[in-house]
Amino acid sequence: MYAATALLLLLAMGMTLVRALRGPTVFDRILAVNMFGTSTVLMVSVVSFMHHVTDMTDIALIYALLSFTGTIAVLRFVEIDHERREMERAEQEREVLP
């Protein structure tokens, strides 16, 4: 049963990578990378249960925290870039108007 779960998770991770590469928007890619991180945590947990190794559960929790923090950092970067572009566009519109 764990092997079937692991295979299905690998399939989901593959489809998630395709979504991350194809986009079409930045937010689609960020969501796909976040989903890949979640799937990775699930995969580590399943492998941990398969091999009866409880130490890997700690690794899965640490990876979940790192994935969440990384997603927040990337979203903050995208937000700052979006605000900068909006300000540049507003300045250009002011220059065009008499």
List the helices and strands and how they pair.
Elements: H1 2-22, H2 26-51, H3 55-96
Structure description:
The protein is an all-alpha fold. It has one domain. The chain is built from three helices and no strands. α1 runs antiparallel to α2 and α2 packs antiparallel against α3. The chain is elongated and about 70 Å long. The termini are far apart. The model has no long low-confidence stretch (mean pLDDT 90).
Features:
single chain; mainly alpha; 3 helices
Rg, please?
20 Å
Distance between the ends? 71 Å
**β-strand number:** 0
| Coarse shape | elongated
Helix content: over 70%
Poorly predicted runs are none
Please report the number of helical segments: 3
- Structural class of the helices, strands and pairings? mainly alpha
**Beta-strand content:** under 5%
Summarize the structure.
This protein has three helices and no strands.
